[in-house]
Structure prediction request, 79 residues.
Amino acid sequence: MHDKMVEYEIIEAKEIKFGRNNFIEVARKKAISDEGENEFISISRGYYLDDGTRKWKASIALPKEKEKREEIAELIKNL
Prediction:
């Protein structure tokens, strides 16, 4: 059985710090595999260690279709 390798390229990323040592990163990424490329938006939550190293807790990928991202943004704004 052959495992498929996927590489992730960060195209652009922005970070929002909150709490004592937490952050949310919103990034445009590209997944690259033998089957091709797929661009998506990821929202990741993480925290900083004492030495400034970032550690990740959770991540979600959003669809690349602009209208779906706008619909999700509206839901968040109206909560």
Notes: The first strand starts at residue 7 and ends at 18.
